[in-house]
C-alpha cells in the first residue's frame, strides 16, 4: 500500500504507525503535492488539505473519523500582517504547501472584512527571506510557522484563533483521502492514530528543533485528531464560504 505522509510535525500522531511499519511504501511531501499524486493514481492513501477533499470529491473519498484539527489555537498556521502597511493588504504571499490554510485566510478576510483577498502562492523559503527585509504580509503553515522567528514589524495572527473568534467554531485542516474505487477502512485510520497516541512521548522526544515543553503542548493540547461536532460544523461553514468565493 502506497501512503502519502505529510512531513510536518502536526501529522506525526496520525502517521507514526505507517512510517514505522514495513508493510507500507511511504512518500513524504506537502499536502499540495500529495493530492496530485493521489489523483494520478500513484498513491492509495494520503493525508491532504481538507479543502482538497471537497475540491476532488468526484474522484476521491475521504474520512472524517480522524484528521488534523484545532479548537482555538494552532500555532502552526500563522498570518504575519506587516505593521508598516497602513491598511489591509491587497495581496498576501502564502506558503504554497497547504491549500486549506490559504483558503481559510481568504474565508476569514471575507467573513471579517467582506473583502476578496488576492494571494500569491510562494515557497516558504522565499517568504522567510522577504520577512527578513520586512517586505509584505505573509502566511506560513506547519513546521515553517513553528520554527520561524520574526521581527517587531509583524503582527502574528493564529488562524485557528481568528476562525474561532469570528465563527465560534473549530477547524479541520487535513483528512485522509483515497481513490473512490479503492476505499480504505476507518478502522485502519483509527488504528494508526491509536498507535501514534500511544507513542506520543516518543514523538515528542524525537523532535529536536523545538523545546520539549512547546512540542508537548502543541501535540497534546493545541491539536486534536478526532473531529468534534464544532470541528465538523466549522468545516461545513468553511466549505460553504469557499463556494461563495469560488474557491471550490
UniProtKB/TrEMBL annotation:
It catalyses: chorismate = 3-[(1-carboxyvinyl)-oxy]benzoate + H2O. Gene3D superfamilies: Periplasmic binding protein-like II (3.40.190.10). It comes from the Bacteria. Pathway: Quinol/quinone metabolism; menaquinone biosynthesis. One of its GO terms (biological process) is menaquinone biosynthetic process. GO terms for molecular function: hydro-lyase activity. Belongs to the MqnA/MqnD family. MqnA subfamily. Catalyzes the dehydration of chorismate into 3-[(1-carboxyvinyl)oxy]benzoate, a step in the biosynthesis of menaquinone (MK, vitamin K2). This is Chorismate dehydratase. It comes from Leptospira ognonensis. The gene is mqnA.
Amino acid at each position: 500500500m502506497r501512503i502519502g505522509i505529510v512531513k510536518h510535525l502536526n501529522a506525526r500522531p496520525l502517521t507514526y504507525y505507517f512510517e514505522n511499519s514495513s508493510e507500507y511504501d511511504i512518500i513524504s511531501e506537502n499536502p499540495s503535492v500529495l493530492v496530485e499524486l493521489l489523483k494520478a493514481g500513484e498513491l492509495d492513501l494520503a493525508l491532504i488539505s481538507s479543502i482538497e477533499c471537497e475540491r476532488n470529491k468526484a474522484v476521491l473519498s475521504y474520512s472524517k473519523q480522524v484528521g488534523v484539527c484545532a479548537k482555538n489555537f494552532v500555532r502552526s498556521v500563522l498570518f504575519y500582517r506587516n505593521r508598516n502597511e497602513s491598511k489591509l493588504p491587497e495581496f498576501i504571499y502564502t506558503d504554497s504547501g497547504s491549500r486549506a490554510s490559504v483558503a481559510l485566510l481568504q474565508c476569514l478576510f471575507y467573513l471579517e472584512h467582506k473583502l476578496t483577498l488576492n494571494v500569491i502562492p510562494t515557497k516558504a523559503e522565499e517568504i522567510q527571506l522577504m520577512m527578513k527585509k520586512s517586505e509584505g504580509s505573509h502566511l506560513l503553515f506547519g513546521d515553517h510557522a513553528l520554527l520561524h522567528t520574526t521581527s517587531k514589524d509583524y503582527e502574528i495572527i493564529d488562524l485557528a484563533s481568528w476562525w474561532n473568534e469570528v465563527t465560534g467554531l473549530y477547524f479541520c485542516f487535513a483528512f485522509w483521502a483515497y481513490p473512490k474505487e479503492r476505499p480504505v477502512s476507518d478502522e485502519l485510520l483509527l488504528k494508526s492514530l491509536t498507535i501514534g497516541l500511544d507513542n506520543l512521548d516518543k514523538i515528542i522526544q524525537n523532535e529536536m528543533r523545538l523545546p520539549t515543553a512547546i512540542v508537548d503542548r502543541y501535540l497534546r493540547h493545541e491539536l486534536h485528531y478526532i473531529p468534534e461536532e464544532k470541528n465538523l460544523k466549522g468545516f461545513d461553514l468553511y466549505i460553504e464560504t469557499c463556494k461563495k468565493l469560488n474557491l471550490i
